[in-house]
Amino acid sequence: MKTFRDKEVLVTGAGSGIGRETALAFARAGARLWVADINLAQAEDTATQIRALGATARPLHCDVADNNSVQAMADAVHAEIPALDILMNNAGIGSAGRFLDTSLDTWRRVMDINLMGVVHGCHAFLPNMVARGQGGHVINTASAAAFIAAPDMPIYAASKFAVQGFTESLRGDMATHGIGVTAICPGIINTAIVANSIMEGKMGEGARHDKVVQFYQKRNYTPAQVAKVILRAVQRNVAVQPVSPEAWGMYFAKRIAPGLVSRLSEKELPFLK
Ligand code: NAD
């Protein structure tokens, strides 16, 4: 896809962070936006910012964990247009805590949003994209946690490894329909995700949670920087797109020195000490 002018783009989790900035970037490139979030007020705020650019945006309420909610959103979109050009399954939540401290409720909640949210989006929107026969693109927000599974993030890593695997499978499948599929692996990005993460066990202790939040703020790689890379990845139909330098580092480290990565994983992260 060489140009985004007049393309119909839907982004989930568009009320904040990477989703909001990517929606704004697509709007600046001439696309027409559908901005979905579980927090409708935040989606409306994103839509207002897009309209201020002179572009078109429709805010939508949607809980990606709930298939009925995603299907209702797709029905509303398809009542107005035959199919999306670009679907970005981006909504996600963070979670941290050693395995023995995790609850099964947290496992289900995170998998329902981070993995099934992506599946629900594809299930609801891809049939129309395929039937229209004019190609398109699916962007799934995975993570550098899909390269290296830190011991403090068993649930989050499991959800993002799964998104990565699903995305790879879908890419081969959709190629015959001219639909590109890209996994985005951002890195450490300064958004609201850590402040809103489910923290269990030692990770949930106030001081530790604050340290992680401060670490992400100090790193200060912005969601707007991620958005720029995402648009380029779609234009080039990249399969897996690491974004920040640490995401690239993790991508190569896992391939070049998996034994070293495994030994380092046993050590406590320096910024938590
Ligand atoms: P964020 O918290 O700023 O934004 C996430 C958005 O998703 C919020 O607006 C939230 O309301 C929405 N959301 C949460 N649950 C939802 C649901 N059930 N249905 C619909 N919307 C829902 O976080 P972000 O950092 O912009 O995260 C976006 C994506 O990027 C996530 O998938 C996250 O896992 C991934 N990611 C983030 C980072 C990072 O460092 N920030 C790194 C790697 C991957």
UniProtKB/TrEMBL annotation:
Q: What CDD domains does the record tag this protein with?
A: SDR_c
Q: Where is the Ketoreductase domain?
A: 7-187
Superkingdom per UniProt: Bacteria
**SUPFAM superfamilies from the UniProt entry:** NAD(P)-binding Rossmann-fold domains
Kindly list the GO molecular function terms attached to this UniProt entry. Answer: oxidoreductase activity
Give the UniProt keywords, A-Z.
Oxidoreductase
Task: Identify the Pfam families for this entry.
Answer: adh_short (PF00106)
UniProt keyword ATP-binding present: no
**Can the keyword Ribosomal protein be found in this entry's annotation?**
no
List, alphabetically, the GO terms of the cellular component aspect.
Answer: membrane
Task: Identify the InterPro entries for this entry.
Answer: KR_dom, NAD(P)-bd_dom_sf, Sc_DH/Rdtase_CS, SDR_fam
PANTHER family registered for this protein in UniProt: DEHYDROGENASE/REDUCTASE SDR FAMILY MEMBER 7B, DEHYDROGENASE_REDUCTASE SDR FAMILY MEMBER 7B
Its family? Belongs to the short-chain dehydrogenases/reductases (SDR) family.
Name of this chain's protein: Short-chain dehydrogenase
Give the species.
Isoalcanivorax pacificus W11-5
